[in-house]
Write a structure and sequence with these properties.
Radius of gyration: 38 Å
Number of strands: 38
Largest sheet: 10 strands, antiparallel
Low-confidence stretches: 1-31, 114-126
Number of domains: 4
Number of helices: 2
Strand content: over 45%
């Protein structure tokens, strides 16, 4: 960065020379130019006649002070002139009349008709700002309002080569508008800004962070952009225990110079590092795992960039079953009480629900059996047509399948039960039914996650999980 600053200062010397030439050329050609003959406190002598107002400007054209009056002889400024080099812009009948450049030292005009003197910054040495937004369509860069520069800013690449000019600020002084879209590469914005310290006008070099453009998009290493992970690809059909499963996901990072690591959390208490393949901050993560026990698991992927920012995403759920006789099966029948609001097609319906279930694996990875569910008060009669999977884990069984309501439609159901004989407590059940658009039709635990422990008490009958 020090090399960049040295080059920036050299570049800005050229900028200053150009600006001075521009101002001198403008004044020499102005038919209404005049000379400042003396300055005493806040009064300036030299221009006679009526005017609409006068403005004190520095050599870059920044406004330092203004004045109003019908007679500009003398011109009364609204503040004491600091030490520095200036000119005065008088407006009369919509015409501008420019004075010579003059230098002020301790309130006294000491160098009439002198060339402008650009002071070297003392405190602070440099002023940093962050370019933190970019819209390719409108070519906008957003920066702090304090950096609004009437002369605009220059954009350089990291080799200190001039790329384009940024126009004067707009939008309340916060928007720097690019003259044209930037090519791919790394850039910074550079310019000068004035400040007054100890009644003396100084100019300090101002430069932004280095930012990147890739395919017309803006990337800012100075901003906390975490990686973004797309949908995780993992098995959507039940997988037998002791089988290798694979998962993968793509990710992107707005900071295309970042590098990344990844971690898989398999939901069974085990984690492993992901295999990352990436280019320009984006890429993919792969992983594999073997589940030793049956269950319904959430897989979580975390991608971490080299700045410590991270993004996460989850896959819900991977279903692991035990197809052997030791894997268990489910039987049960009985009743429980439905509360109003559980059946969304008839929110007022409440009363006793009768149910029956039988599910087990024989061969293959699809269980067989039948599940029925009837809420008489809501005219809801659900019958399963097929099962997707069954997971038995200790005293809890989870069953998912398809079915109809009142003999028609295409619905999915989820049943989770707890065997009270094994827990020493009550039999518990959770039933959820969704339509073909994945909208909830019936749920004993509305707004709960799909895979949670059941909470509804089975009043009559029994639930048996056979291990």
């Amino acid at each position: 960065m020090n090399d960049i600053l040295v080059q920036m200062k050299k570049i800005n010397v050229t900028l200053i020379i150009f600006l001075l030439f521009f101002f001198f050329a403008s004044f020499s050609e102005a038919s209404g130019s005049w000379s400042v003959t003396s300055i005493n406190g806040a009064e300036v002598d030299g221009y006679g006649g009526a005017c609409d107002g006068a403005t004190l400007r520095d050599t870059f054209g920044f406004t330092l002070a203004g004045a109003l009056g019908s007679n500009c002889n003398p011109i009364t400024l609204n503040s004491i002139v600091p030490n520095g080099t200036f000119y005065i812009d008088v407006v009369s009948n919509s015409n501008h009349f420019y004075s010579n450049f003059f230098t002020v030292s301790n309130g006294t005009l000491t160098n009439n008709n002198a060339s402008p003197v650009i002071k070297t910054p003392i405190l602070p040495q440099e002023y940093n700002f962050t370019v933190y937004d970019y819209q390719n369509g409108n070519t906008l860069i957003t920066a702090p309002a304090i950096l609004c520069n009437p002369l605009g800013w220059d954009v350089y690449n990291i080799n200190n080569q001039f790329v384009t000019h940024v126009s004067a600020c707009g939008g309340g002084g916060e928007i720097l508008v690019l003259a044209n879209s930037l090519p791919d590469g790394s850039f910074y914005v550079n310019g000068y800004r004035p400040y007054i310290d100890n009644n003396t006008l100084f100019y300090e070099e101002s430069y932004s962070n280095v930012f990147q453009i890739l395919n017309g998009k803006f990337y800012n290493p100075a901003s906390p952009y975490p990686p973004s992970i797309s949908i995780i690809n993992a098995p959507t059909v039940p997988v037998a225990i002791n089988t290798v499963i694979t998962s993968s996901a793509n990710f992107t990072d707005l900071n295309y110079t970042d590098t990344h690591t990844a971690m898989w959390d398999w939901g069974d208490g085990n984690t492993s590092s992901g295999t990352v393949t990436e280019s320009n901050g984006s890429g993919s993560v792969a992983g594999s795992h073997i589940y030793l026990t049956s269950g319904v698991y959430t897989i979580q992927l975390t991608v971490i960039d080299n700045n410590g920012y991270s993004g996460t995403n989850q896959f819900q759920y991977v279903v692991i079953y035990d197809p052997t006789a030791q894997g268990g099966f489910l039987t049960g029948s009985g009743s429980y009480d439905t509360q109003a609001g559980w059946y969304l097609l008839d929110p007022q319906a409440s009363g006793k629900v009768k149910f029956g279930v039988q599910a087990k694996y024989t061969t293959g990875n699809t269980p067989i059996g039948k599940t029925k569910f009837n809420l008489k008060e809501g005219n809801l009669d659900f019958v399963s047509t097929s099962y997707q999977w069954l997971v038995v884990s200790g005293a809890k069984a989870t069953l998912k399948g398809n079915g109809t309501i009142n003999g028609s439609g295409n619905y999915t159901f989820l049943m989770i039960v707890t065997d009270g004989n094994q827990t020493g407590g009550q039999n518990l059940i959770r039933i959820q039914i969704k339509d073909s658009s994945n909208n909830v039709v019936y749920d004993t635990q509305l707004n709960a996650a799909d895979i949670v422990d059941p909470t509804t008490i089975v009043n009559t009958g029994s639930i048996q999980i056979h291990n």
